[in-house]
Amino acid sequence: MEEIGFLGMGIMGKAMAMNLLRHGFKVSVWNRTLSKCDELKEHGASVGESPAAVIKKCKYTIGMLSDPPAALSVVFDKGGILEEICSGKGYIDMSTVDAETSAKISEAVQKKGGSFLEAPVSGSKKPAEDGQLVILAAGEKGLYDAILPAFDVLGKKSFFLGEVGNGAKMKLVVNMIMGSMMNAFSEGLVLADKSGLSPKTLLDVLDLAAIANPMFKMKGPSMIENSYSPAFPLKHQQKDMRLALALGDENAVSMPVAAAANEAFKKARSTGLGDLDFSAVYEIFKVTEPSA
Ligand SMILES: NC(=O)C1=CN([C@@H]2O[C@H](COP(=O)(O)OP(=O)(O)OC[C@H]3O[C@@H](n4cnc5c(N)ncnc54)[C@H](OP(=O)(O)O)[C@@H]3O)[C@@H](O)[C@H]2O)C=CC1
Ligand SMILES: O=CC(=O)O
């Protein structure tokens, strides 16, 4: 396949671009903080000086940026995608954003004659390293078909969900559920501990019960060690809760559980836990009321 552009060398983008390189793809990368491209360069990637420079060089370019302002910035700002995107080129945004952000980008890219696909992913740092992501694509089907060889390397399964916005919405629903589960899990760990049970034994029981799941299994042991090395940064999980709640507002869906979870993530951010893993929300539940 032709050289693939990759914008955003954060936790996910770096792992995904590395994976493409490992599978023999030629990759051209860009990151706002340029030094984060060094390791990729050592593994054979070329480095572009701006998103526009990468788009100019590559037929297909993937973006993996933190949030809606970042996703919009690489498209609309000086040196951005719009300066070089044209007929025959495609942009695939794999960031987690809301449907409105995706639609804005899609419209602008198409106005210049380019193709657009949104393709947020489910799965964190390790699945990204192992090519085990779940890809939630929507937009131009021709671009989806063309980029599938790369998706087959990045993920274990790709879904094509129709018109732009459906991928973003699916991702927000999934992460709203994940964030709510992480809150219930944290409360349960604290309740076990405070009521004299072993949190470690709780993990063993949960793993054999009807609610066993990969997230509890993966995060539980590090949480009880108070270890929160970021795989999925808490600030991004809170962004996803916020965007999912806005989707709930638009559709008049009452979401009291997600709203409470969002408050806990906000509180965690306000106490400086935003750059840690989202499982650090556990710390919020450990804080006990001072006795009167
Ligand atoms: N980590 C995870 O487990 C998962 C994350 N996601 C989603 O993937 C996306 C990326 O996540 P992740 O890699 O963890 O995040 P990181 O915070 O590790 O990386 C964010 C990236 O966005 C860039 N960026 C931020 N602001 C701007 C801006 N204004 N202009 C240009 N670039 C900018 C950063 O550049 P710089 O280095 O210069 O700061 C960096 O490359 C997010 O939308 C997240 O919600 C989805 C699934 C799993
Ligand atoms: O967005 C995070 C994930 O683990 O999926």
TrEMBL record:
Pfam families: NAD_binding_11, NAD_binding_2
Keyword NAD listed: yes
SUPFAM superfamilies membership: 6-phosphogluconate dehydrogenase C-terminal domain-like, NAD(P)-binding Rossmann-fold domains
Reaction catalyzed: glycolate + NADP(+) = glyoxylate + NADPH + H(+); 4-hydroxybutanoate + NADP(+) = succinate semialdehyde + NADPH + H(+)
Active site residues according to the UniProt entry: 171
Record domain 3-hydroxyisobutyrate dehydrogenase-like NAD-binding: where: 165-283
Annotated GO CC locations: cytosol
GO MF annotation, one: NAD binding
InterPro entries (alphabetical): 6-PGluconate_DH-like_C_sf, 6PGD_dom2, 6PGDH_NADP-bd, HIBADH-like_NADP-bd, HIBADH-related, HIBADH-related_NP60_sf, NAD(P)-bd_dom_sf
Keywords: NAD, NADP, Oxidoreductase, Stress response
The keyword NADP appears for this protein: yes
Coiled-coil positions: none
Limits of the 6-phosphogluconate dehydrogenase NADP-binding domain: 3-162
Family under the similarity heading: Belongs to the HIBADH-related family. NP60 subfamily.
Function noted in UniProt: Catalyzes the NADPH-dependent reduction of glyoxylate to glycolate as well as succinic semialdehyde (SSA) to gamma-hydroxybutyrate in vitro. May function in redox homeostasis and play a role in oxidative stress tolerance by detoxifying glyoxylate and SSA generated in glycolate metabolism and GABA metabolism, respectively.
Protein name: Glyoxylate/succinic semialdehyde reductase 1
Species of origin: Ambrosia artemisiifolia
